[in-house]
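Quick one: structure for this chain?
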Amino acid sequence: TLNERLVPLLRYRTGDVGVLKGIACKCGVESFLQVEGRMDDEVIFASVHLSTNLVSALIEKIDSGCSQIFQVILTKDEGLDFVEIRVESEEIMEKVESNKIASKLFEELCNEIPDILDAINSRKIQGFVINIVNPSSIERLEPSGKIKKIIDSRK
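Got it. Here's what it folds into:
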């Protein structure tokens, strides 16, 4: 029903974020909705929208010996947001190596979202840091063992 003007499109609040693609599907439909993620997998600070899907893709892109286990942690410091991204390494790393990986990940993130640097430089946020942490150091939820990807303590 996305292509038909006379057929109503039913709307549901699923929390999914999607993009209408103008390409043909295998079934022959000219355009379709591609689900990009969930609204609750995105965090907003200083008008910057940061998606956990993007963080995950960049971790994979830099191929650094880091796992896909990470957290985005938001806190308030002196009335401004402070953002920390913790990424688990696959093996224990030296501090120098983990700092290089964190810098590379920060650079890639700023290339994708230039507003992050603007927020830092204009003091809209208190800080933004990426830390590479040892394996299994990010807390897992019991009993599933899942990771809470976004921890927002700003309230």
